[in-house]
Each structure stands twice: as structure tokens, then as C-alpha cells.
UniProtKB/TrEMBL annotation:
Residues 1-58 form the HTH lysR-type domain. Belongs to the LysR transcriptional regulatory family. It holds the Pfam family LysR_substrate. This is LysR family transcriptional regulator. Keywords: DNA-binding, Transcription, Transcription regulation.
Length: 296
């Protein structure tokens, strides 16, 4: 059990849906849902029950949330007493811009690990609708760093972070050659984000590059429902292998040639504040560790 899980549970109770709680906390909804499930497994109880499109607390959930509020209030009081450093300086803010599809990478993986090493740095995620807005936020000084697709314009400094693989998530009964040829996407029924959304624009750009025209079986931004629609046989889904939490009841297939995406940390050509330099060094080390595991 940890404070992050308690904050997520309290926020879900307050907002009535995990999506709204995640938005209020500036975290990705899958990361919040995963943390709540982990706490439920650890405690051996169900904290929330579904109610329409939202959730409600169970009886034991109400008791847990009541105690969680007490614990969080105590932590806040302690932080208030220790908020100033010995030299009188308070914690440093770090602003990182990113797109909605890459936000889980920041909030679910990088920021929690960085926060353990640098507890005095407060990280704020600046959400952007696309790569152009990310670059604009960095240029305008609204963000110190950004996690985005590469390449970026030449007025930005870029540090490659990781290469991601796009995979086909489909009902197991779907008959398709493996690895999947790119032309198999032509006419395939797909579960797609809503038209005009940042995620949809990313996928449409990818499909145009491939030269494939699939059939939209479902168009929705309810990301938590996408795998359910795939399991129900309504269509297949294009998503990133590293962002798959639960693959039960679906088949995950690679493409040939592979569909990959290089992401990186970028910043303007100016001197970075110390917290940004620390985060950049941390992210590079994280990427090296990940590559080392992959090679073994």
C-alpha cells in the first residue's frame, strides 16, 4: 500500500468515475485504474462497484476511504511542516508537455520513479493535442521539457528515448497471416478513437502513411472500453505494445514490416533549469536500463 494508491482511491470516490478522477489528478486513466486494482488485490476486498457509467463505494470501500482521508490529511500536515528546505528554498516546479497517447508513459512510469529520487521537485504535466502544440508549449516557455514523437523542428534539441511498436489487437478468431502484412489493414474492421480527437489524428496519419483504409467498426474515446469491444468481436485495435495491461481474450500480433514510432525528450535551445537537467539525465538512464534488459 502506498500514498499514491490512497490518493487515487479517494479521488475516484470524490469524482464518481475513474476517468474524472484521473483528469483531476493529471494522471492517465489506465494508470489510476491499475493502482486501484492493485490496492484491492493487496487488501483482498472490492472497493468500488459499477453503477451506470461510474462507480460507487462498497461498504468496505467507504471504510477504507474514510481512513485514507485521515492518512492523507496527516501526510499533508507533515509536508506543510517540512516544505521549506534548510536554506529557505521551497521545492522546485518542473513542467513537462506531452500528448494524450504518451501521457501514460510520464504519469505511469517516469514521473513516479523520478519523484522517489527527487521528492522536492513538483512535476506538472502540460497536456497538448498534438506534436505541434507540444513544440509551441516548449517554445513559449509553458513547459521546460516535452515527451513527444521524433523528429521535431530544428529549433528544438531532441534526445531519443525509446522506439515503440504498434501492434494489432484483435479477436483470436480473426483469420490473418502472422506477422500481419500491412495491406491486411485495408478494409479491416477497427475500433478507433472518436473523429477529430488527438489519438484519432495520430492513427489516421499512421494509416495514410501505410496506404490502408480500414472500416470504422466503433469510434469512441472511451479508452477503457476498447479492449472490451475487441473481445466482443466488434473489431480490432491498433495500439502500442508497451501500453497493454490486460491481453486476456485477445490476440496481439506484430506487423511486417514492423510499425514503429520513436519518441524522445525535447527542449528549446536554451539553458535548462536544474530540475529539467536532472529529469533528462534520469530519463536517459532509464532508457539505457530498458535497452539493457531487452538485450538480455
Amino acid at each position: 500500500m502506498n500514498l499514491r494508491q490512497l490518493r487515487y482511491v479517494v479521488a475516484t470516490a470524490d469524482h464518481g468515475t475513474m476517468t474524472s478522477a484521473a483528469q483531476a489528478l493529471y494522471v492517465a486513466q489506465p494508470a489510476l485504474s491499475r493502482a486501484v486494482r492493485e490496492l484491492e488485490r493487496e487488501l483482498g476486498v472490492e472497493l468500488f462497484a459499477r453503477s451506470g457509467r461510474g462507480v460507487v463505494l462498497t461498504t468496505i470501500g467507504e471504510q477504507v476511504v474514510r481512513q485514507a482521508r485521515v492518512a492523507l490529511d496527516a501526510v499533508e500536515a507533515i509536508e506543510g511542516m517540512s516544505g521549506a528546505r534548510p536554506n529557505g528554498q521551497r521545492g522546485t516546479d518542473l513542467r513537462i508537455a506531452t500528448t494524450s497517447s504518451l501521457e501514460p508513459e510520464l504519469t505511469g512510469r517516469l514521473i513516479p520513479r523520478f519523484a522517489r529520487d527527487q521528492p522536492a521537485v513538483r512535476v506538472r504535466v502540460v497536456r497538448c493535442d498534438g506534436r505541434d502544440q507540444v513544440a509551441a508549449a516548449v517554445r513559449a516557455g509553458r513547459a521546460d521539457l516535452a515527451l513527444t514523437d521524433l523528429p521535431v523542428p530544428g529549433d528544438m534539441a531532441a534526445h531519443p528515448f525509446e522506439q515503440r511498436e504498434v501492434v494489432l489487437i484483435s479477436p483470436p478468431a480473426l483469420k490473418v497471416r502472422e506477422p500481419v502484412p500491412l495491406n491486411a489493414l485495408d478494409g479491416m474492421r477497427l475500433v478507433l478513437p472518436a473523429r477529430g480527437s488527438p489519438r484519432r489524428l495520430e492513427i489516421d496519419t499512421m494509416l495514410r502513411r501505410i496506404g490502408a483504409t480500414p472500416v470504422a467498426a466503433v469510434e469512441s474515446d472511451e479508452r477503457g472500453s476498447w479492449l472490451g469491444w475487441v473481445r466482443a468481436g466488434m473489431g480490432s485495435l491498433l495500439w502500442y505494445r508497451n501500453q497493454l495491461d490486460d491481453t486476456e481474450g485477445v490476440a496481439v500480433r506484430s506487423f511486417m514490416p514492423p510499425i514503429t514510432r520513436m519518441i524522445g525528450l525535447v527542449h528549446a535551445h536554451r539553458r535548462l533549469p536544474p530540475a529539467a537537467r536532472d529529469f533528462l539525465a534520469f530519463a536517459k538512464e532509464t532508457a539505457r536500463e530498458s535497452r539493457g534488459r531487452d538485450h538480455h
